[in-house]
């Protein structure tokens, strides 16, 4: 079975992030994140996993197992809690369980006026977007079932959206905050994920670089930049919330506003896959709101009835929210060891990436395999 998407000719998305988010009617969200906790073990390549007997508490149950009529609350997109300094090595609500805990800096050079550092919030409706509207003829996404694996290929270019102009031009208003010098380049992406992933004995930390891939063919990175800050808040992205890193990989740090807008109705919409094989969903209640942290577990997911592998199935999955860390806080399954990413080129231009902390697991940001020099 093969699912293939290709960007239609002339498909252009021109709305900025602030206008897309206004159309979400204050879509609510919050995030629960967890680290693996005290006593966690480290495997032979430095990937930290849970200590024996440690587990992630399940999310609150929902009658019927599907999307409820109303989530636990709503997050104002004009006052999103800032995710800075929320890198942890033990389970903490609203923090990221990061395999890297020491950072070399990088990312945006100056804070924009959409950041309120005193209040520790940021206004997504006021954030500047990188200018430009570029289509990519090479953009494609293919998803094939081969035995017990889901094989995904793409060129890491959006199939149904345009991108901004990178490197950021000096004439672009975004340049005064973020001088991102990197270009976007077509890559060769090939991932083999478990078709029926299972929950591991305990959670696993997420590395820098890619933590998954979305169904428009673009890499999903974790929620922090090279300095360990909230990347969605600090760094400037294009109108669909993407930008390139030093390896010229285009990527997102959250579920982009253009995909959130496309999944505006009540229910669950599969928008991508984490590296452990579990799905990433946009789930909206009767009012169009996204979940809050009270609705999700410590890895930012829950078990409920969704359409999975073509059937309605009660299965674990991750959820998109507006608050840090936005998608995957830690892995509930076992992330793939060596996803096959064959580079077509690109150079390291922006400092930073893996920092000097714990080394990520195999296939998770090693060298340039999954986006060294995360931006």
Automatic annotation (TrEMBL):
Bias type Gly residues, positions: 352-375
Chain intervals with Low complexity compositional bias: 49-70
Keywords: Signal
Domain YHYH: start-end pairs: 192-284
Recorded superkingdom: Bacteria
PROSITE patterns named in the record: TAT
Protein's UniProt keywords contain Nucleotidyltransferase: no
Region (Disordered): 41-77, 337-375
Signal peptide: 1-34
Protein name: YHYH domain-containing protein
């Amino acid at each position: 079975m093969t699912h293939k998407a290709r960007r239609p000719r002339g498909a252009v998305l021109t709305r900025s992030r602030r206008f897309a988010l206004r159309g979400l009617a204050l879509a609510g969200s919050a995030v629960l994140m967890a680290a693996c906790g005290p006593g966690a073990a480290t495997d032979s390549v430095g990937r930290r996993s849970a200590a024996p007997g440690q587990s992630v508490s399940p999310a609150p149950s929902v009658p019927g197992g599907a999307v409820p009529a109303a989530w636990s609350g709503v997050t104002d997109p004009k006052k999103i809690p800032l995710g800075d300094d929320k890198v942890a090595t033990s389970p903490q609500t609203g923090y990221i369980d990061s395999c890297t805990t020491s950072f070399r800096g990088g990312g945006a050079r100056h804070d924009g006026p959409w950041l309120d550092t005193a209040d520790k919030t940021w206004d997504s409706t006021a954030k500047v977007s990188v200018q430009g509207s570029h289509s990519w003829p090479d953009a494609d996404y293919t998803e094939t079932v081969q035995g017990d694996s889901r094989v995904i290929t793409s060129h890491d270019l959006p199939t149904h959206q345009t991108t901004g102009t990178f490197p950021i031009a000096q004439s672009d208003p975004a340049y005064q905050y973020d001088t991102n010098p990197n270009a976007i380049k077509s890559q060769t992406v090939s991932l083999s994920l478990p078709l029926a992933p299972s929950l591991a004995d305990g959670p696993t930390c997420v590395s820098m670089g890619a933590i998954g891939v979305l169904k428009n063919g673009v890499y999903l990175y974790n929620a922090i930049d090279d300095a360990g800050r909230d990347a969605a808040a600090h760094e400037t992205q294009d109108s669909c919330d993407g930008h390139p890193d030093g390896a010229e990989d285009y990527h997102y740090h959250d579920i982009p506003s253009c995909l959130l807008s496309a999944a505006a109705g009540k229910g669950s919409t599969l928008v991508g896959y984490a590296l452990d094989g579990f799905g990433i969903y946009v789930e909206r209640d009767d009012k169009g709101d996204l979940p809050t942290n009270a609705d999700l577990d410590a890895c930012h997911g829950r078990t409920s009835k969704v359409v999975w592998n073509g059937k309605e199935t009660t299965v674990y999955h991750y959820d998109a929210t507006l608050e840090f860390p936005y998608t995957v806080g830690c892995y509930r399954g076992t992330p793939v060891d060596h996803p096959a990413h064959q580079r077509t080129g690109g150079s390291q231009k922006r400092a930073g990436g893996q920092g000097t902390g714990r080394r990520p697991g195999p296939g998770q940001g090693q060298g340039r395999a999954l986006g060294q020099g995360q931006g």
